[in-house]
Design brief:
This protein has two helices and two strands, in the order H-E-H-E. It is mainly α. The model has no long low-confidence stretch (mean pLDDT 85). It comes from Trichonephila clavipes (Golden silk orbweaver). One of its GO terms (molecular function) is nucleic acid binding.
Length: 67
């Protein structure tokens, strides 16, 4: 099975809302749509990745996070 990885880097700090607006919605949602049901999202456990707003966004988009 072939797999692809896509990495994004940010300079400085990022809030949970910035993460949603700048990464999750424009990029992760797009890749999830292309990958289909087998898509699993992995992050690096940074503080902005673990906010309740981010978890709510992932849940509402049906995105499964690797924990």
């Amino acid at each position: 099975m072939a797999a692809r990885a896509y990495m994004m880097f940010a300079n400085g700090t990022m809030t949970g809302q910035q993460y949603i607006d700048e990464v999750l919605l424009p990029h992760v949602r797009l890749f999830r749509g292309a990958a289909g049901d087998k898509f699993v999202f992995m992050d690096d456990n940074a503080a902005c990745h673990r906010t309740l707003a981010v978890q709510d966004c992932l849940d509402s988009e049906g995105i499964q996070r690797l924990v």
